[in-house]
Amino acid sequence: MAIYVVNIGEKEALKDLLVSQAMIVGLYKNNVNVDGNTTFEHLEELDKEADGYQPKKLTNDVVFDQATANKWYVYTNSDGKAEAQYSNAALEWVASQSDVDNNNTVYGVFAWTLVLPFTSGGTDEIKVGSTITGITSGATAEVTAIRLTSGSWSGGDAAGELCIKNQTGTFQAEGIKIDTDDCATIAGDSEERLLFVEAFTTGQEINQVGFTIKYTLKLTMSTA
Fold first, then answer.
1. 77 plus 125 within the same structural domain
2. Do 107 and 39 fall within a single domain?
3. Which domain holds residue 121?
4. What is the pTM for the complete model shown?
5. CB burial of residue 206 (10 Å; 0-12, 13-18, 19+)
6. Rounded distance between C-alpha atoms, residue 205 and residue 203, angstroms
7. Taking phi first (over 0 means left), then psi (-120 to 50 degrees means alpha), and beta for anything else, what does residue 156 get?
8. Tens of pLDDT along the chain (224 residues)?
9. Same structural domain for residues 70 and 47?
């Protein structure tokens, strides 16, 4: 059975996707054939130097129909599809001397999010917006979404994964807590999950200090 989702439904669905995961956007320096089988292993990120390239950490804040700095805004595009653009200006990376010295060419952008699998959920349910803390490591992160794959909070055996943002420190095999309440067990640090890859039409060679790479990030709902 085919169903038709009206424009407002598309926009709400796109909003829910964006709110649930905070993206990190980076640049890659190898010329690869990007397709649905592309993984992290196929991409070489630019070198992170103290005064050079760094990936961009985006917020997961969403507004409708009004371009706003450092937030996603969701609207209906000229093709009648739900579309989202990040911020009211392009993302920019400005080359430093260390970037030039590395003699790199940028072939495209890629985005990922942080996910933290958990088991042995306690009876205290983890909520979106909560700050979790590693009991041993002291690492922290804010929860943007909870995906329960088995068990239940009421039964004390909830298991699944947490989408997180603003992580500080490194989680390890340990319990995690919210305030003073133990809430779950994790097997190690968060995982980087690849969300999308976009290749530039032509590679952009970093050949001088101040060279700027600009990228307007747009995502469109599509059944194609």
1. no
2. yes
3. 114-191
4. 0.90
5. buried
6. 6
7. left
8. 455 556 778 889 999 999 999 999 999 999 999 988 999 999 999 998 767 799 999 999 999 978 999 999 999 998 888 999 999 999 999 999 988 888 899 999 999 999 999 998 766 789 999 999 999 999 999 999 999 999 988 888 899 999 999 999 999 999 999 988 888 999 999 999 999 999 999 999 999 999 999 999 999 987 54
9. yes
